[in-house]
Design a protein that fits this description.
The chain is α/β, with parallel strands linked by helices. Helix content is about 35%, strand content about 20%. It has ten helices and ten strands. It has a five-stranded parallel sheet with strand order 2-1-3-4-5, with helices on both faces. Strands 6-10-7-9-8 form a five-stranded mixed sheet, with helices on both faces. Helix 2 runs parallel beside helix 3 and helix 8 crosses helix 10. The longest helix is centred in the middle third of the chain and has 14 residues. The radius of gyration is 20 Å and the shape is elongated. About 10% of the residues have low confidence.
């Protein structure tokens, strides 16, 4: 049993209310806006906050208030615009507004999100791994990093979750291109965690950086600035890291190096090839 605060449109609330109450959950607040809900948080201290993903009910201030009060925030998106808005705020617990209460309850009790995408047939939703897009070009081909960044931004703009990983073994350039000049190599950190079986979603959120655009936000795993450090990342660690990224987000965009080396010590960028087209 959980205590909940709601800020939903009337149709969605009416659809969920009966099942919610029948399963023993308690509603401690019902609000029409984010401002009202923030006040209710301080007074009633709910465990779960369930809101519509529209701009009137889902705001950065509400997310901050939930973090302060220790309440878990779940948003229901009724449109692609709602999902883009939630993605832009960095909220990960976002479900389709048509989701049944049983699926919302699974997320509350077990922490298992059903990755429904607005506009997709419900039959396509489930736990399938995210798709991988590898951006590659031969020596001297300009624009690989720019293309990878634009692909990630476009995917985020339509409401999907996406991570851009810089796995260029010659010159990691995603961070400078995005103005992340002081960031430690996020992809290398993720590979090290994968090597010790400790690469979890929370660790990915810690080592990755959130990049915001006017149309949406996406995660970035910055690259290694010195080619000499790439032998630290074994084939197994790179492969396991990409597998974990696929479990974390809808799309993984890889900015790769220009040369696919035959030297095994510096050929880690080869190990994304089995994923291309998946």
């Amino acid at each position: 049993m959980a205590t909940l605060a709601l800020a939903l449109d009337r149709h969605t609330e009416d659809r969920l209310l009966v099942d919610l109450i029948e399963r023993g959950h308690v509603i401690v607040a019902r609000s029409a806006s984010a401002g009202e809900l923030i006040l209710a948080l301080r007074q009633s201290a709910p465990e779960i906050v369930l809101v519509g993903a529209a701009r009137t009910t889902l705001t950065a201030d509400l997310i901050a208030a939930c973090d302060t009060q220790g309440a878990r925030l779940i948003a229901l998106a009724a449109s692609d615009q709602d999902r883009r808005h939630a993605a832009g705020l960095g909220l990960l617990d976002v479900l389709d507004a048509a989701t049944d209460w049983s699926e919302i309850e699974d997320l509350i009790i077990h922490g298992v999100a059903i990755p429904l995408r607005v506009g997709d047939p419900r039959a396509l939703a489930g736990t399938r791994p995210g798709a991988v897009i590898a951006v590659w070009g031969p020596s001297g081909a300009p624009g690989r990093t720019t293309l990878a960044i634009n692909i990630a931004a476009k995917i985020a703009a339509v409401g999907h979750t996406v991570v851009l990983a810089d796995i260029d073994t010659y010159s990691g350039s995603v961070a400078p291109a995005l103005g992340m000049l002081d960031e430690a190599p996020g992809f290398a950190a993720a590979c090290r965690l994968a090597g010790t079986d400790s690469l979890t979603q929370s660790e990915l959120e810690r080592v990755a950086q959130r990049y915001n655009t006017p149309q949406g936000a996406f995660w970035v795993l910055t690259g290694i600035g010195r080619p000499s450090r790439w032998p630290e990342l074994s084939a197994e660690r790179v492969t396991r890291t990409i597998d974990e990224l696929r479990r974390w987000v809808d799309y993984v965009v890889l900015d790769t190096g220009f040369s696919l080396e035959s030297d095994e010590e510096i050929s880690s960028d080869l190990y994304m090839l089995p994923y291309v087209g998946t």
